Amino acid sequence: MLDDLSSAVALDIVVVGGGIAGLASAYALQQAGHNVRVLEKTDGRQRITRNDDRGKGTGGIRSPPNMTRILDRWGMGQRLGDVAYKCGVVTLYEGCTGKLVGKIPLEQFAPQFGADLMFVQHGDLYEILYDFAIQAGVKVLFNTNVTGVDSGDVLVLDNKQRVDADVIIGADGPRSIVRRDIGGDEPERSQTGYLTLTLTVPTATLDADDELRCIWRDDDSQYRFWFGDGYCMHLASFRSGSQVSGTLVYPIDDNASSYNEGWSESYPLSHFKPDWEKFEPRLRKLLQQQERVTATVHFDNPDLESTLCDRSHVVLVGEAAYPALPSGQYKAAYAIEDALTLGLLFARITDRAQVPQVLCAYEEIRGTRSASIVPREKEKRRLLSLPHGPEQEQRDTMWKHPHPSGEKWVDLDIVASSRLSSHDIEVYMYDAADAVQDWWSTWGGLLDRHSPTKTGEKGPQSGVVISVSCDSKEDGCSFIREE
Ligand SMILES: Cc1cc2nc3c(=O)[nH]c(=O)nc-3n(C[C@H](O)[C@H](O)[C@H](O)COP(=O)(O)OP(=O)(O)OC[C@H]3O[C@@H](n4cnc5c(N)ncnc54)[C@H](O)[C@@H]3O)c2cc1C
Fold first, then answer.
1. Distance 12 CA to ligand 1 centre (A)
2. Tens-digit pLDDT profile for residues 7-45
3. Which residue CA neighbors atom 37 of ligand 1 most closely?
4. Where do the domains of the chain lie?
5. Which residues of 258-294 are buried (b: 16+ CB within 10 A; e: fewer)?
6. pLDDT at 106
7. Which of 331, 334, 338 to probe ligand 1 with, by most ligand atoms within 8 A of CB?
8. Per the CATH hierarchy, to which homologous superfamily does domain 12-85+121-188+302-375+425-482 belong?
9. Cβ count within 10 A of residue 207
10. pTM attached to this predicted model
11. What does the pLDDT average to over 179-199?
C-alpha cells in the first residue's frame, strides 16, 4: 500500500467549496504537505449541528466500505463510530403490502470488504471532516463567494479581489462555477421528473407507536427498502441508532420546476401528492406523521469531457465533477475517493512543474470511475422504483432467488453476480489507494524523469486567479490580494 508521504514542495492550493468533497480534499492535500485554503460561500453554520437538536432537515449519508476504509485510514474511524450506525442486513419489502421480499446479510461479507457500510448524518460527517481539516492546518474561509475563475491578468471584477494559487480545486457542488470555467458556458440541464423527499425521525417516536415500532424493531435489519409501485423508499438508522432517516424517491408529473436540487428547502408533507394507496399502512403512517420533509429535485447534467481545465491547474472533485442524482447512495463516497486520490498523488510531487502531470494522473484514475456513476445510478433508481408489471415481478424473483441454482445470498460471488447488487459490490470493493498505487507503479517513474524542470522544458504558468466576494472580514482573508 502507498504510504501517506509528505510532498517535497509545499504548494498553495485553494479549494472552492467547503462541503464534503472540499473539506476532504483540503484535509488530504494539507496532510500531503501543502498549504490549503477553503473558500466557502455560506457561513457554514447550517451544517454544524453539534450544539442543537439537529432539526436541520439534512438527512443521511451512506459510508460504504470503500469510504469507511478511507476514513479509517485518515484516523477518523473512532469519530465515525461514535456517531454512525453499522448496517448488518439489507431488507426488502413490497411497498404496497409490507410483505418481506428478501434479505442480504451484508455484515457477513465485511471481512471481504475490509470495512462496514455505515450510516452517518450529513452534519456529523461534515463536522468530522471540518475538525480534522482545521487540526491539520487547513484555513477555511466562510462567507466567501467565488464568482469566476480566470487564467491570469485579464480578470476584471466588481470587487477587485483576487486569490493566487498554484492549484485550484473546484469542490463547489452540482451548480459549480469552476465547472463552468472548465466546461464552457453553463451546460443545458434537464429535469428528470423525479423528486427525493428526505425525513429524519427520532427512534423514540417510532418506539412510542405500536405499529411503527414493529417497522423498526421486528428484526435485525438496519437498511430497509420498500419497492413501491413506481416509487422506492428506504430507511436507515443514524446517530448511534437514535434517529432514523428516510428517503422517498418518486416521479412527479408537472411541478418539478418549483423545487431545487439543494438540501435546504423543506415543505409540509401535505404539499406532495404521492398516491398513498400504493403505500403499505405502516409506511403511510410514518410519512404522514412528518410535519416537514426536505425536497430535492433530480436533474440530468451533461457530462464533461474532462474534469481538468486545459491550463491544467484547475480540477474538479465531488459533485462539481459529476453531479449525481440526489437519490444516489454513494455520492459522498466518490467525493472521499477523489480526495484520497488527490492527496496521495500530491504527496509525491517533487517539483512545482509536475502539477499538470499529476492532475492528468488524477483525471486518468478518476475519469474511468466517474464515467459510470450517473448511468448506473439512474439504472438503479429505475430498477428500485419499477411500476408493477413483468419487469418488476422478474426483479422481485431475482431478489428472492439471486442465483439460478436457487442459492441464497450466502456467498459474495452470488451477490456480485446479481443484476441488482453487482454495482454495489463493485463500489464496495474499489480501493482508491490501490488505484493510485497501480498508476504510480506504471507511470510514476516516468513522471519524475520527464518533469519539465529535469528535461529543461519551460514549465507551465502557475498562478491561476480566482475572483471572490468576501462578506466577512475574517482574519483568514489575509491571503486575498487587492489589485
Ligand atoms: C447543506 C447540505 C446538506 C446535504 N444533505 C444531504 C443529505 O442529507 N443526504 C445526501 O445524500 N446528500 C446531502 N447533501 C449532498 C452531499 O453532501 C453531496 O452529494 C456529496 O457529499 C458530495 O458533496 P460535494 O462537496 O461535492 O457537494 P456539496 O455538498 O453540494 O458542497 C458544495 C459546497 O460548495 C459551496 N459552494 C457552492 N458554490 C460556491 C461558490 N461559488 N463559492 C464558494 N463556495 C461555493 C456550497 O455552499 C457547498 O458547501 C447535502 C449537501 C449540502 C450542501
1. 23
2. 889 999 999 999 999 999 999 999 999 999 999 988 886
3. 172
4. 12-85+121-188+302-375+425-482
5. ebebebebbbebeebebeeebbbebbeebbeebeebb
6. 84
7. 331
8. FAD/NAD(P)-binding domain (3.50.50.60)
9. 12
10. 0.88
11. 72
